[in-house]
């Protein structure tokens, strides 16, 4: 494998290109701007983005922002948010603000986010994917005629159905009036509703004002220390620590060192402390080996329940077998007669007998 080493100038060139791509986005049409065009572009676009930034989110109106839209967030038309119109010289007065797609041939008139299950969008109630529906406003299905528009039975993490969510496009003043975070003014393209690293998480997981929020002090203070299970080492060291210092602080321990003095007493106390330390280590080791972890306790619980269920099934089978033995047979009784039925002569034999008699 070839190893590529970049010098300081090459690393700076890579950083400059990444900065260029964050600022320009898809506005260059795939052809890099020259230095003069790049500077002119920044002089024209920077004031618009700093004053007319649009914050795009996805959620229930009046609720939390379940999803904050960023440059790489896909639309219903499968194109990214950065491929839609995001810069305006003047903010439109009509609401909702439409952000049409700029990809040639796409009929998407407004950016619209759709819930995703992993990496794929959720399915409609007609069992077809969002890719099978039209990107126009009606979102009609192209594989069936009974679908009246994309409508998914999926439920969001906030507890509301997918049909109750909307893609919201708001200005900075509208966000501040609702008490939502707006972050810092940045010149980057298609930032949408991103204001920090926490914006990448779902709404019910975010602890900022746009998400679930910080839990109240009453919730935090209601958690008692005893409500949580102690660590295995805390369980093991608890009895040992309680028995060790407590035993050493008793009346006998206080009278022993106080009565003895001199080097002999010091050597005797040192010799007496060694067995105590060894015994404490042995007791801790034994306690740790006797303790069972939470997984082992769970496995023992489920194994016990399984054995109880198997025992109950065996008892039910035995009771059913014993009850079926005492019941009379339900099969119909057939009585065989001693007289065998006579065989009727066939039609051909009867005709032959008539010819012989004649």
UniProtKB/TrEMBL annotation:
- Pfam families documented for this protein: FAM221
Annotated stretches, region: Disordered: 241-294, 307-358
Q: In which residue ranges is the amino acid composition biased (Polar residues)?
A: 320-336
Classify the source by domain of life.
Eukaryota
User: Where is there biased composition of kind Low complexity?
Assistant: 241-291, 337-349
Instruction: State the coiled-coil residue ranges.
Output: none
- Basic and acidic residues bias located where? 307-316
Family to which the UniProt record says this protein belongs = Belongs to the FAM221 family.
Protein name stated in the entry: Protein FAM221A
């Amino acid at each position: 494998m070839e190893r590529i080493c970049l010098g300081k100038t090459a690393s700076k060139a890579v950083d400059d290109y990444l900065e260029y791509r964050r600022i320009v986005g898809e506005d260059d049409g795939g052809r890099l701007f020259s230095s003069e065009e790049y500077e002119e572009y920044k002089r024209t676009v920077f004031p618009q983005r700093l004053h007319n930034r649009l914050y795009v989110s996805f959620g229930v109106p009046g609720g939390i922002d379940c999803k904050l839209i960023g440059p790489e967030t896909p639309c219903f038309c499968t194109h990214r948010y950065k491929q839609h119109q995001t810069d305006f010289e003047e903010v439109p007065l009509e609401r909702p603000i439409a952000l049409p797609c700029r990809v040639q041939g796409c009929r998407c008139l407004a950016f619209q986010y759709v819930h995703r299950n992993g990496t794929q969008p959720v399915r409609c109630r007609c069992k077809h994917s969002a890719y099978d529906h039209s990107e126009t406003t009606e979102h009609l299905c192209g594989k069936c005629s009974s679908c009246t528009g994309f409508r998914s039975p999926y439920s969001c993490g906030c507890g509301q159905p997918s049909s109750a969510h909307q893609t919201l496009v708001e200005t900075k003043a509208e966000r501040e009036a609702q008490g939502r975070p707006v972050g810092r003014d940045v010149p980057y393209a298609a930032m949408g509703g991103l204001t920090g690293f926490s914006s990448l998480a779902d709404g019910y997981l975010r602890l900022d004002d746009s998400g679930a929020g910080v839990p109240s002090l009453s919730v935090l203070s209601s958690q008692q220390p005893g409500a949580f299970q102690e660590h295995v080492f805390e369980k093991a060291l608890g009895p040992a620590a309680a028995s060790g210092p407590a035993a050493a602080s008793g009346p006998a321990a206080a009278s022993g060192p106080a009565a003895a003095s001199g080097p002999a007493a010091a050597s005797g106390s040192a010799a007496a402390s060694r067995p105590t330390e060894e015994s404490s280590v042995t007791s801790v080791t034994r306690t740790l080996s006797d303790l069972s972890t939470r997984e082992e306790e769970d496995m023992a619980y489920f194994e016990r329940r399984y054995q109880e269920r198997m025992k109950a099934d065996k008892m039910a089978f035995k009771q059913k077998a014993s009850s079926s033995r005492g019941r009379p047979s339900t099969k119909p009784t057939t009585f065989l007669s001693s007289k065998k039925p006579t065989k009727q002569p066939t039609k051909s034999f009867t005709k032959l007998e008539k010819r012989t008699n004649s």
